[in-house]
Write a structure and sequence with these properties.
The protein is of the alpha+beta class. About 35% of the residues lie in helices and about 20% in strands.
Length: about 130
Amino acid sequence: MLTHVRIDKYLWSVRIFKSRNIAAEECKKSNILVNGINVKPSHNIKEGDKIQIKSPPIIKSFLVVGLIEKRTSAALAKQYISEVTPLEEYNKLNEFKTNTRMAFEKHDKGAGRPTKKDRREIDKFKSSI
């Protein structure tokens, strides 16, 4: 039975990040917190630790339920981690998406590319902001 696992290996194993290298880079950029402390990729975690991942504009929070070193299927990986991100963070994300500058450019799926006329109107609108 495992007593501790490297944070970069764990985040890759439970499928938070696509590769272990990406997980290590996020640790180096100080985007990963364990129990409120910035950690290096070699930091060991144990069951019960709270992991926070800064993903602007929100901070996702996870609880370590079990330890795993090897990558498994997504269904099995769910047994080892629990998401505890507050609903307010997701509300903040939705608000950010609706307030971005590009929100007005959304169009129906399958409508195709904008016409020349549409593009001119979009450019005119952007320059007026």
